[in-house]
Design a protein that fits this description.
Its EC number is 1.1.1.100. By secondary structure, this protein is an alpha/beta fold. The protein contains 7 helices and 9 strands, in the order E-H-E-H-E-H-E-H-E-H-E-H-E-E-H-E. It has a 7-stranded parallel sheet with strand order 3-2-1-4-5-7-9, sandwiched between helices. Strands 6-8 form a two-stranded antiparallel sheet. Strand 4, helix 4 and strand 5 form a beta-alpha-beta unit. Helix 1 packs across helix 7 and helix 3 packs parallel to helix 4. The protein is globular.
Length: 256
């Protein structure tokens, strides 16, 4: 990692964004590229969509690397990061954004459906973080941002699996922050609220939460760009004294 020119400059950094094909993942990749980072764009099945984002990153003037992998598969994740090490030189920033957000009433939910959601959100974050941390420790530091979910804090019908998995990321964030602070690695969690725009097929419907849109103090849904701005800010050198935190981007629907 090269020394940045300013507290808002990510030049010389390599950032990995999982689930980078659309919405928050795509917006975050572009925001990091605009700050000067080269971006590794992860996807699972939608290669054409990931490659489209890669073209946008390259149009900004930064290098893009597309990696396709099932992040619930340990060997696949290890292979993905070996490729990143070989082709990009290592990892300075990791944004754990990949998730599935299906809906199912609890009494109809199978153990397989429960485990699939936990695998993508929790196991995937663990596996990607573990491999990225190997690189960050060797490079003398880095930043991990986990993407939580507001339903983990206020509840939602038909989302027991998603809310539980997202809640687990808070504990993982704090423990990694403690363990890797001596190595110069910061770990934080950003929690989006109700975010507007076209939703992906795996996102499900807008969840029935214990608080509705009428409770959003700012009176509107957020945008993916607003979330991406906050995510990227936690990766900047200027945020070097922030770690182990959970920060909500939700227009005031939940305040901690």
């Amino acid at each position: 990692m090269e020394a940045p020119e300013s507290d808002t400059d990510l030049s010389g950094n390599v950032a990995v964004v999982t689930g980078a094909s659309r919405r928050i993942g795509r917006a975050t990749a572009l925001r990091l590229a605009r700050a000067g980072a080269d971006v590794v764009l992860h996807g699972h099945r939608a290669r054409d969509e990931v490659e489209a984002v890669a073209a946008e990153v390259e149009a900004i003037g930064r290098r893009a690397l597309v990696v396709m992998a099932d992040i619930t598969d340990e060997a696949a994740v290890e292979g993905m990061f070996r490729r990143i090490e070989a082709e990009a030189g290592g990892v300075d920033i990791l944004v754990n954004n990949a998730a599935i957000r299906g809906e199912k009433p609890l009494l109809e939910m199978s153990l397989a459906e429960w485990r699939q959601t936990m695998a993508v959100i929790v196991d995937g974050t663990f596996l990607c973080s573990r491999e990225a941390l190997r690189s960050m420790v060797a490079r003398g530091g880095g930043s991990i941002v986990n993407i939580g979910g507001v339903t983990a804090h206020i509840g939602a019908a038909r989302r027991a699996h998603v809310a539980t998995a997202k809640a687990a990321l808070g504990g993982l964030t704090r423990t990694l922050a403690v363990e890797f602070a001596p190595h110069g690695v910061r770990v934080n969690c950003i929690v989006p609220g109700s975010i507007g725009g076209r939703r992906s097929a795996t996102a499900g419907a807008v969840p029935q939460m214990s608080k509705g849109s009428e409770d959003i103090l700012l009176g509107r849904e957020g945008t993916v760009e607003e979330v991406a701005h906050v995510i990227a800010s936690f990766c900047l050198p200027g945020a070097g004294y922030v770690t182990g935190q959970t920060v909500h981007v939700n227009g005031g629907v939940y305040m901690n």
